[in-house]
Amino acid sequence: MSAQAATVPSRGIRLDSRLRATARSEWIKFRSVRSGPFVLVATALIVVVGAWLLGDANRGSYLAASPAGKAAFDPVFTVLQGIELAQLFVGALGVITVTGEYASGLIRGTFVATPQRAQVLAIKALVFAVVVWACCTAMSFAAFFLGQSVLSPAKHAGIGDPGVLTAVFGGGLYLTLVGLLGMFIGVLVRRTPAALAALFGLLAVLPIVFIEIPGKITKNLGEYTPDAGEQAYQLVHSGAYALGPWQGLGVLAAYVAVAAVAAFAIILRRDA
Amino acid sequence: MIEAQSLTKVYGGTTAVDGIDFQVKPGLVTGFLGPNGAGKSTTMRMILGLDLPTSGTVAVGGRRYQGRVWPLHEVGALLDARAVHPGRSAYDHLHSLAAANGIARARVDEVLEQVGLASVARKRAGGFSLGMFQRLGIAGALLGDPGTLLFDEPVNGLDPEGIIWIRTFIRSLAAEGRTVLVSSHLMSEMALTADHLLVIGRGRMIADMPLSELMARHSGDRVEVRSADPQWMAADLRAAGAQVTLEPDGTLGVVGLGSRKIGELAAERGHVLYQLRDVTVSLEEAYFRLTGESVEFRAAAPVAS
User: Fold this and answer.
1) Which of A2, A89, A174, B199 stands 20 to 30 A from A235 (CA)?
2) What is the mean pLDDT of chain B?
3) How far are the Cα atoms of A89, B19, B41, B256 from residue B61, in angstroms, in the given order?
4) Chain A residues close to B71, C-beta within 8 Å
5) End-to-end CA distance of chain B
């Protein structure tokens, strides 16, 4: 009614402009609350400072280790282990990105503005994945280079060594997938505490359950829990099936895919 | 224009909205009135495509809401004013909504100015008072300058100044030719704001009429007349300038003519009167009477100890 708002975006390229509008909106939402940047900075600190501490601690123990111990030593995984702690932060960020919107009731405002719910979820996941992947890959590289320089003169790796580039990229991909898993679980569960419990149950408790139950079958099945994705940033692969980095990430990605399918199915049907 | 046909919503085994039909017309403030839990919010969520009707349909401007590509340009809504992330500023909150519908950033400043929040636009919403949340919610509804507006309990928790502001504002939106639906559980509020009333109780439509008609029928100084020939009596009363409603049992409800005048008129025209009774009912009482049987949760009468 006023001239200002009458400028509806051009309808010629409707889907394209609709997607871009949703992406812009989701990006504004992501960057305008503290949790996103805060969690990413905390994650970077854990991973990078962790690499320095781990490198420093393992330099001495490597030099004192037996020849067998030296052979099994994985200089990449050693300094990237901070990711195991960081995943809790990134996973929680994925959860609260969604559950925060449900808790405040803002999700209704979102769907009133954009009734295309599947599109909202897809774009939300995409924006999240791009931001988290970029940050986590950068911190994985930073942790690698810092860690290797601290590790020297003990056994250390160069970025060009076989499998190393994959492992360093793998660290960023692993965290991104964990974040996405949290996000889709958040859609399914809607409440922050329950979603966090479900996510950490899958990531941390499920593998322990398989280890604790005696028997070969559970031991072998234990290879296919979501934390198989941790193979991504290791050079040395053990376990019954000796999953490599891509197989490990594939297992985690399969969990993410199942959660995503369920999340899309439910978000279209459920009353908001 | 909002149109609902046999709109029904069942949650589990509970029927929240029970086959209601209504139209909300442009240029008027339509009050959606009913006790808490009557189904007002559920109906509004169905209008906005948030809840799917169990059966029946509801359309805004002739179309289902869900199919719209840039809905904020056509429909604006204030559902729950507190539905804002507490860590996000008022400006960022509105900006994200505006961006989702391709609305320029300048418009965000404009609506913030319009609702009087410009000075706190960059502050985190977590510290807002309820009145500020209501203003922010209204700003969000106005973003796309829509022709249809829905406000769910907009005066809840506002101070008197805020209530008058919203009332005036809502009336001005309708005066501009927009379709405005405002829900409330307060008859007194609706009496001051609405032109037309939809009264709902336990999910059913109890009344759908202009405010003036509701007042004439159910409140004000009214005289109840029972006479030998109600039709003839009614015609004579109308000729004398009264507003007359004829109840099924033959009782006439007369507004605009006092009992004294009616008695004189009856004598003059030779009517046989069985009863002539002054009734004073406030609008509030009329509302209670209308919704009396449809209140879902009612406190038991206090027991004398």
Assistant:
1) A89
2) 89
3) 46, 20, 20, 39
4) 112-115
5) 54
If you ran DSSP here, which 8-state letter would residue B198 be given?
E
The torsion angles phi and psi of A82, rounded to 5 degrees, stand at -55, -25
Task: Name, in order, each residue with C-beta under 8 angstroms of A234's C-beta and a sequence gap of 6 or more.
Answer: A74, A76, A77, A167, A245
As a whole number of Å, the CA-based R_g of chain A is: 21
* Element containing residue B208 per DSSP (H, E): strand B204-210
Contact list in A for residue B50 (CB cut-off 8 A) is 108, 111-112, 271-272
A272/chain B closest Cα distance in angstroms: 5
Interface contact A25-B89, CB threshold 8 A: no
pTM comes to 0.85
DSSP A23-86: HHHHHHHHHTSTHHHHHHHHHHHHHHHHHHHHHHHHHHHHHHS-HHHHHH--HHHHHHTHHHHH
A108: three-class secondary structure by DSSP: helix
Closest residue to B79, CB basis, from A21, A108, A114: A108
Strand order in the sheet with B243-246: B243-246, B252-255, B220-227, B273-281
Specify which residues B29 forms β-bridges with.
B180
What contacts B266, CB < 8 A, 6 or more positions away? Answer: B227, B233, B273, B276
Give pLDDT, residue B290. Answer: 72
Asked if B127 and B6 touch (Cβ cutoff 8 Å), the reply is no
The residues pairing with B184 across neighbouring beta strands, listed in sequence order, are B33
Residue range A90-116: mean pLDDT, rounded: 96
Structure tokens at B167: 């009332």
Q: How confident is the model at residue B285, as a pLDDT?
A: 73
- In this model, does residue A3 exceed pLDDT 50? no
Interatomic CA distance for residues B47 and A230, integer angstroms: 47
Going from the N-terminus, what domains does chain B have, and what CATH number goes with each?
2-209 (3.40.50.300), 220-281 (3.30.70.100)
The three-state secondary structure class of A105 is coil
Cis preceding linkage at B302, omega within 30: no
pLDDT 10s digits, A175-226:
999 999 999 999 999 999 999 999 999 998 988 888 888 888 877 888 888 9
